Amino acid sequence: MVAKILSINSGSSSLKFKLYLMPAEVVVASGQVERIGQAKAHFTMKTEAGKVDEDVQAKSHDQAVSLVIDQLLAHQVIKEMTEISGVGHRISNGGAYYSQAVVIDELVEQRIDELSALSPLHNPVNLLGIRAFKKLLPQAMQVAVFDTAFNATIPQANALYAIPYDYYEKYGIRKYGFHGPSHQYITEQVQERFPTMSHKIISCHLGSGASISAIKDGQTIDNSMGFTPLAGLMMGTRSGDLDPQILPFLQEHEGLDIQEIKNLLNAKSGLLGISGYSNDIRDLEKAQKEGHQRAALALAMFIHRIQTYIGAYAAELNGVETIVFTAGIGEHDSYIRSKIMQQFAYLGVRIDETQNQANELVISQRDSAINVLVIPTDEEIVIARDTYQHFSH
Fold it and tell me: Where is the catalytic site (predicted)?
């Protein structure tokens, strides 16, 4: 059956959306509301008829959701709200509860709320999006698509932490891994385009939030993020991996409470914390050229952490056939990709710098032992497919 499905990605100050005609997977409209909660928000939308780009009022996620629906109606993308049959929401953390997409009911909402403790930057705003759409589109089926679901195949030996096993049984403390829809999309793309090179994939989702996945025969066997999206790589404002003894040390010497430590690790660390300048890789590359030493240090650390994980996952996979770069930095930053891959000449990686500079699909040379690709991610289509699957049943 034909259905219009809305894919939603709620951020702390943004709301991204794509409206699909399913099962044809035709994008009818796409856009976002940025700077939600600020004096002036900004709305952009692309449809067959053209582009919309304007400053708007959106003091809350409720207002942003109303704005999206109003604009879809005003530009005659839909004639009435009841045309939207389903809304798929990207949810950061499904914990031990969910290993696949689920229809949202009160219990699901409660669990998403409960898991906010593990994804404080994401689950609460994901929930705001769900509640706003429920109010506005009561007829539409709401589906939760979890960042953790594609990582449910990580084996226990890779997923558990070396703390008393009781805590795993009691609280589900283990590695869940994140960015599942992105890594899933990348896996499917490699399987489709390079089937003979798709058995051992390392997928590098590099954006403000960043994670790397080891994927064997279409299933995740490891992911750099952990119990929460704070673990793994150094990110825009997140610390990534660190010695756990640092936390009680800071508590003792700086007098920080738990909330201050959470804020320090999630919002004041990473590229921003080291550079003291910016959490944006573009700003740091510009500053590095101008001789800003801490910007250069932040970039060197970011690159080193990525190289370390790629090296570990190449060993874990017992070799690698394809390395993929995706997300904001992965798709657009040829300098970062080039620096990362220099480390893997010993594995037979040969980068074609002309293709790399042009952000082409294949950036490795023909004689490279490993296929190195740049694939724009599409989390929204994964969300739409998962939502439609529920709807069509």
Answer: 147
